[in-house]
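[step 3/7] fold_predict: job queued, chain A
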Amino acid sequence: MSKRSIPISLPVTGEEEWLATKEPLMTGWLTSGPKVREFEQNFAERHRVKHAMAVTSATTALHLAVVALDIKPGDEVIVPAFTWVSTANIVLYQGAKVVFVDINPRTFNIDPEDLKKRITSKTKAIIPVHLFGLCADMDAIKKISGNIPLIEDGACASGSGYKGVPAGGLGTLGCFSFHPRKSITTGEGGMVTTNDDKLAEVIKSLRNHGASISEEERHHGPKPYILPNFNLMGYNYRMTDLQGSVGVVQLRKLDTFIKERNIWATYYKNELKDISWLRLPNFGSDYQHGWQSFVTMVDESKAPLNRNGIMEKLQQAGISTRPGTHAVHMLDYYKNKFDLKSDDFPGARDANNFSMAIPLHNRMTEEDYQYVVQVIKSL
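[step 4/7] structure written:
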């Protein structure tokens, strides 16, 4: 089999998405408007929530969530130690304290037993991350958290679910990403979801500079020349209608994308199950995995090379891999600012050092998957 070049991820976009941008380009309504509204309505319907509010990224979605919950200096917010850095950064934006919690390295999500130890009287929110498309154990987290608000970091979890409930409706607020490495994309972009009417109104205002009504409502209202009132200090976190038009098309394909990814994730699990040094994703029937990534763990005591050596060999063979993500407490900024040690969170440490994502996306062919399996088996 000849050498291939297989990226870790590649979005499925084409003529349909390109044609969808024609309407906003022709009408001249390029900022947040009717196409964003359509995308929001469709996303809310798919994820079975009352409100979905499009923003510029998952990072800004998370930031709006903590602002809407009135997180402020002196408050504590619990964040998994193994996640993308923005999950922690948005807590610092508010001057609040990040309290890290360890993860279960078998699921890469919050370890409920460690969570019990981290909650204090100052805990004002918990951010469960649905990493790589697998929802966190929300029942266990809710049993421990009581009335503490839960912000779902569902950056990887569009279309994922837990016990039949879609991500985004499992907590107080949900936050999603449409970065090109996610299952569906708008280039950059994000979404905030909630079933709380009051929080939804606050977030709609916050994303638009704190204005009392949206630009579209003002322009199409009886007095478009009257500027709105500004009741809050807000931000410019609005998604554009160009992005919204692409999002409408992408969302129609989401379930097909996930179904296809599930087929190939099953193929990987069947083909790679006998490799003693490679631990594969494993989860119960309560979880509807979105398969944003297929993340394994390398057992270096049994592997022919260390994790990075294996990644180098695969790169030489034309197969892109990545660590699952990073342990935030091991990044220099957090390590130095808060005097953290790698061993403080051993589950996150091990996931940082030994996780390996292999290609799984909707631009791959059957031959691509066969090639990935063949090369891994040959190591």
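[step 5/7] annotate
The domain at 253-378 is CATH 3.90.1150.10 (Aspartate Aminotransferase, domain 1).
The longest strand covers residues 51-55.
exit 0
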